[in-house]
Design a protein that fits this description.
The chain is mostly helical. The chain contains three helices and two strands. The chain is globular, with a radius of gyration of 16 Å. The chain starts with 20 loop residues before the first helix and ends in a 9-residue tail after the last helix.
Length: about 90
C-alpha cells in the first residue's frame, strides 16, 4: 500500500473554478484553442483570430464572477499582448 496515495478526480468532475481574473483570462483562450501552453510553461499564440473571437464571445456571455464583461475582455486583451507566437526555448 502506497504511503502517499494520490486522490483521483472522477471522470465527470468539473474543472476547478479560477481564483483570479488573470487566471481566468489565460484559461479562456486556452479552452478555445487560441493559446497553447507548452510543457515548459510558455504560452504560444496559435494566430487564429476566430479562436480569439470565440474566447471574447465566451467572456461576454460568461464573465468571471464579480467582473463585468468589459473588464473580462480587457483582461483577455492584456493576456493577448503578453503572449508570443513562438516558444522562446525552441
Amino acid at each position: 500500500m502506497p504511503s502517499n496515495p494520490q486522490r483521483k478526480l472522477p471522470l465527470n468532475a468539473a474543472r476547478p473554478a479560477y481564483r483570479t481574473l488573470a487566471g481566468w483570462a489565460l484559461g479562456t483562450p486556452m479552452d478555445e484553442r487560441a493559446v497553447e501552453c507548452s510543457h515548459r510553461g510558455h504560452r504560444v499564440d496559435h494566430a487564429d483570430p476566430d479562436a480569439w473571437n470565440r474566447a471574447k464571445a465566451e467572456a461576454w456571455r460568461n464573465p468571471f464572477p464579480g467582473a463585468s464583461p468589459e473588464a473580462c475582455i480587457a483582461a483577455l486583451d492584456e493576456i493577448a499582448r503578453g503572449i508570443g507566437d513562438t516558444c522562446p526555448d525552441r
